[in-house]
Amino acid sequence: MDLWTYIPQLLASGITIGAIYALVALGFVTISRASQIINFAQGEFVMLGGIITFFLLKVVNLSYPFAALIAIVIVILIGFMMHVSVIYPLRKASVLILLMATLGASIFLSSTSGLIFGTLPKALPPFSSGSPLSIGGISVLPQSVWILLSTFVLLILLYLLSHRTLLGKAMEASSTDPLGADLLGISRNLMVFLAFGVSAGVGAVAGILITPIFFTSYSSGTILGLKGFIAAVLGGWGKNSGAILGGFVLGVAEALSLVFVPSGYKDAVAFVILLLILYFRPKGILGSPFIDSRRW
Amino acid sequence: MVIWELENWNLFGIWNLIIGVLHVNARKNMFSQTKQGSQSDFRKRDLLYLAPLWLLSLIAPDPYLYHKKEFKKKDFYYLGAICLAPLIWSDSHFHHLMVLAGIYAILALGLSLFIGYAGQISLGHAAFFGIGAYTTAILTTRYALPSFLAFLASALSAAVIAYLVGRPILKLKGYFLALATLGFGEIILVIVRESTDLTGGVIGIFGIPWFSVMGFSFDTYLKQYYLIWGVLIGLFIFSKNLVRSKVGRATLAVAASEDAASSVGINVPRMKLQIFVLGAAFAGLAGSLFACIMSTANPEAFSLGFTVLIVMMVILGGAGNLYGPVAGAILLTWLMDFLSKYQEYSLPIYGVILILLLIFFPDGIGTRLNVRLIYLIGYWAKKKKRDEGKL
Known about the structure:
Chain A has eleven helices and two strands. By secondary structure, chain A is mostly helical. By secondary structure, chain B is mainly α.
């Protein structure tokens, strides 16, 4: 059996999962640009997006787009609540305390969702039914096309938000020069608050996109969050373009690793990549505005 | 004691002499400015005043060092309480809980040297705990090694792996160090889970014999209690001496500012690596004891939740304090035991308690309570004085 013939197929699935990683990484970057905080509960937003949509679709019997929309709004509210109840009281705390607080929030969110929605893994129906498309000998699920399209649209929306609106400029200003932004009357806390909303929304969209392909259970958020973070570091910490590139590179690398290592080791591949990138090029592929030429 | 060490003689005597000379000179300059014309220089008479002062400083303990006297009376009370507690509450559940607390305390002690004294972040110490547990499990069940040798071998294996991993990783700082150590933990977890032949995969290894030294087997909870807490006290005394030594002071300097520390000739990467390896060796010992007492080793020991628990123990007790992790370990072990009554609600409650503790006691319960207490006493004393019309 020749493994090499599978490579185009693996590449396609890698790009699909890479889009999801890119979205999770964007969530990390959005928050860290506003406040230098790394929110380890980011993966839980993804998980909640998928599971709340499932709940609204199957138990409350809403229509699919409506359920997805309400789920996104609910997750954004959860993001706001997390900022108000966890991050804002700890805004002057040290790195370690913030890290542990977001991990505590992650434990709380995942176990509570297990309690409310049940611990069984859930799968949403795909956005459009239909047989897998065949493009040049590679079979592609329609859902993969949906994922790529939605990711693209979301990226454009985020670009417009951050570069074409006053709010986006204010966020940018507060991240590049907090003191200057304060002097101009931009509230830094408000910007972090809004950043949490945006990143929770992006996470929820990622969750809704991924749940038709991969089963989502209450505990699957943590590993997705970590992979998203690795993608953000890989592409270049603090850059939107870096997060997107890192997500796709990580997804493809993980998928291609199946050729070389047994599938059980797949989760370790991302972390090995993380250690390698941190050691050899901590700035990431595209370089990072937050990290100077020295190692941190 | 402190005075008889040559190093401290130097500290006391010479520094006081220099400060004394500077002090006298400064006073004379002030004096000469007010009284113009009398241009004064250093008088030999001043040395006469200085000499008794210097001699006095040699005999009188330095206040800055005195309060750090190694063991105080309260330590002996703690020791007595530890020895007597299991005899007073001769309840096997209590014994078992305190055994677990002691194991976690060993782990947290090593981590607090790294977090509290060297000022770094590690989310990978659970991995060293697991490595210690698996080393003991494999050596005792497959190769029938005596558990005491396996105990030493686990510390060694954890330390060697920490050395190999620490060299590249410890160049990172802050969040990225946390992430890298976490990633290391995950890699070890995957390796342990997948190499089924050696480690038994997800199920783990069963039937590890009791810990025994020279044919004396620690087979009851009471014996295990004394074993664990004996090891803990030994490691505690070791850490306390370490913190007071040159290495400990260098470590504190690294935590305060790496640039400043390297500018006074401290080899910062080496210092961090030493403390990391030491913490890993502690974790290996704890893991080995855990494997002997639970008689199993499974991948549960590597989980992120366990890491969070251990780091919380260090934070709650107060990171820059060696009593802190022990107190934090006892507190959180009891909290987890209390919460296990609520079964599926225990994890959400645990998450909320974690966040609340972090918000209200960010530098440890003991530290914050002490500060509050001192503040209250000061407030009360001022109020009393004001009422008496003295202020």
